């Protein structure tokens, strides 16, 4: 049985996507950037590969931006203020892990829905297993401490077109599951802007610094 809400949601989805072009950057004016708030929740340290210099993590990503092409008057659609549609139907920021060490990176991020509010705000929550390059120094093994970074930035847009903003100055560890071999000391976040000699535009990134300390007891037990 089709309810009134189902019918309104169907009409709303058709209304939003009928003349929508996901290849167009959704800024209000072409001279303005799309501001993307970027957050990362670290849920697990899966592996620290000293030999290949790779850190493997399980993460949740949170990206929020405003799309002026996805606005609606909720009173015209049965009071619906939020709708969820597949992420591949809308424009998304091409923010990637720059120090990626995974040849299968395209398969690392789970495809999910985006949450769209009637005011045009989009929230894209996704899950990923990342393999990032990290300079691992075991000179002080088994009492070593490692500082690994994960750098995220747009692949094709400069900061005048896609402006990446940090969500918090500390990474989200609220769902972190402890690792048996490594203690997580801190995860701090910083935003950087790089300028190149060729260009006037800034190239911003959001970098997460993960500090790990090896548990000596884990080496003794093995």
From TrEMBL:
Span-the-membrane segments of this chain are: none
Localization per record: Postsynaptic cell membrane
The Neurotransmitter-gated ion-channel ligand-binding domain covers 9-216
Primary site of residence: membrane
User: Sorted alphabetically, which Gene3D superfamilies does this protein's record hold?
Assistant: Neurotransmitter-gated ion-channel ligand-binding domain
**CDD domains from the xrefs?**
LGIC_ECD_nAChR
| One Pfam match | Neur_chan_LBD
- Which GO cellular component does the record give, naming just one? postsynaptic membrane
Q: What is a single molecular function from GO for this protein?
A: transmembrane signaling receptor activity
Q: How does the entry describe its membrane topology? A: Multi-pass membrane protein
Entry-linked InterPro entries: Neur_chan_lig-bd, Neur_chan_lig-bd_sf, Neur_channel, Neurotransmitter_ion_chnl_CS, Nicotinic_acetylcholine_rcpt
- What are the UniProt keywords, alphabetically? Cell membrane, Ion channel, Ion transport, Ligand-gated ion channel, Membrane, Postsynaptic cell membrane, Receptor, Synapse, Transmembrane, Transport
The answer to whether keyword Cell membrane applies is yes
Similarity remark: Belongs to the ligand-gated ion channel (TC 1.A.9) family. Acetylcholine receptor (TC 1.A.9.1) subfamily.
Q: Would you tell me the protein name for this molecule?
A: Neuronal acetylcholine receptor subunit alpha-7
Q: What is the lineage of its organism?
A: Eukaryota, Metazoa, Ecdysozoa, Arthropoda, Chelicerata
């Amino acid at each position: 049985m089709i309810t009134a809400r189902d019918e309104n949601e169907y009409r709303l989805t058709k209304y939003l996507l009928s003349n929508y072009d996901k290849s167009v950057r959704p800024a209000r004016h072409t001279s303005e950037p799309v501001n993307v708030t970027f957050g990362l929740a670290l849920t697990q340290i899966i592996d620290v590969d000293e030999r290949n210099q790779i850190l493997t993590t399980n993460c949740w990503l949170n990206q929020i931006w405003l799309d002026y092409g996805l606005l609606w008057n909720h009173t015209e659609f049965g009071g619906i203020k939020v709708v969820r549609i597949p992420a591949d139907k809308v424009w998304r920021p091409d923010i990637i892990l720059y120090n990626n060490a995974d040849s299968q990176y395209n398969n690392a991020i789970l495809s999910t829905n985006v949450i769209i509010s009637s005011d045009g705000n989009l929230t894209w929550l996704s899950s990923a297993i990342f393999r990032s390059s990290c300079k691992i120094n075991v000179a002080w093994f088994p009492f070593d401490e490692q500082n690994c970074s994960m750098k995220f930035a747009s692949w094709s847009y400069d900061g005048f077109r896609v402006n990446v903003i940090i969500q918090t100055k500390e990474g989200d560890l609220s769902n972190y599951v402890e690792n048996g071999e490594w203690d997580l000391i801190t995860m701090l976040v910083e935003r950087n802007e790089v300028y190149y000699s060729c260009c006037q535009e800034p190239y911003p990134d959001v970098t997460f610094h993960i500090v790990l300390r090896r548990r000596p007891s884990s080496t003794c037990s093995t």
